[in-house]
Amino acid sequence: GPQPVHSRGMGSREAPPGLIPGVSIRSLKKRFPGNPQPALHGLSLDFYQGLITAFLGHNGAGKTTMLSILSGLFPPTAGSACVLGHDVRSNMAAIQPHLGVCPQYSVLFDMLTVDEHVWFCGWLKGLSAAADVGLVPKRHAQTRHLSGGMQQKLSVAIAFVGGSQVVILDEPTAGVDHASRRDIRELLLKYHDDRTLILSTHHLDEAELLGDHVAVVAGGRLCCCGSPLFLRRHLGSRYYLTLVKGPPALATSKKVRAGADLRPLALKALASPDGHDSWCPSARRVTLT
Predict the structure, then answer these.
(1) Coil/strand/helix, residue 167
(2) Could you count the other beta carbons within 10 Å of the beta carbon of residue 255?
(3) Are residues 208 and 273 located together in one domain of the fold?
(4) Helix residue spans in 87-113 (DSSP H)
(5) Do 87 and 246 meet the contact criterion of CB atoms below 8 Å apart?
(6) Quick check: 280 and 225 in contact, CB under 8 A?
(7) Rounded to a whole number, what is the largest CA-CA distance in the chain?
(8) Do residues 170 and 39 both lie within one domain?
(9) Which residues belong to any copy of the ABC transporter domain (predicted)?
(10) What does the pLDDT look like over 55-67, one tens digit per residue?
């Protein structure tokens, strides 16, 4: 099987000791027809059982493409992806009974009730999951009558039904209110212990709050991965300053006052180990004028 990925080079990687990867990808590439820029550039990464791995990156970084490959929606152009030891190219039928997916966009049936969705995906486990995210009062409501936040909570609950060993959640808290976000987070923390849970997000605070392991991706490439503490220790300790000289100030008086000939300066502070803010999870900018 795939060998564990350990720390090496500028990528700053940390492999948790003694844990078994539930999902392993190696040199994964994806190129879509008509697009000269590959969506994935040789991505290699392990997702471990019993951990929530937060897959962090901006829109267009390749998060949804990778999760779609793991879900069996389309094959990779090159490389390998294994879920519970089965290759997604050749043995997706063996993966699907153990896989739960919450896609980025709703795939619910408008005319089915919450109960019917839960039953459809696995009656006993689904009822428990629906209760955990506060959907029991709406169990007989058709999903077309649910708010966006409640629909998203149902989608997350469905991903856990039937004892899914691998759960993939593509930005599960996007566009929901604070209360729904809290319910979803509590569900993830409650049920992640015996599962390989992959959560994509573009919110740094969410990745740090929920992720036992955080993988940062930019432009289809893995930039760094490890625990939040590991990433802060390796990537959040250096600052680069850029001073930009502004236009000369207009003289308002023949008398030169103290400081009147100073030029305005724009100050930018960027936290990055070697100037690449796109792969530093603690990158932040400050502008002073």
Answers:
(1) strand
(2) 7
(3) no
(4) 92-95
(5) no
(6) no
(7) 85
(8) yes
(9) 23-244
(10) 999 988 999 999 9
